[in-house]
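May I ask for a protein sequence together with how it folds?
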Amino acid sequence: MSTTAPQNPLTKKSQVLLVLKVGGRIVTGQRPGLLQLLDAEDSPVPAWQTALKAAQLSPAQSGDTHEPQ
């Protein structure tokens, strides 16, 4: 059984974009209005909401960038 140390949350848009570049995605969180970052294996990656929102609005992100109004 392997254990991984908890990682510090990503705080910058560039860090979030790196996860997205290697197959990660931003999804709606469990609570309304919150976003969650998942890696390529659909495991949650801790990240600040501001970094997620900035990356979601970035033209560098692949995929759907539409947010409900």
Strands lie at 25-28, 35-38, 44-45. The two ends are 44 Å apart (CA to CA). Confidence is low (pLDDT under 50) at residues 64-69. The longest strand covers residues 25-28.
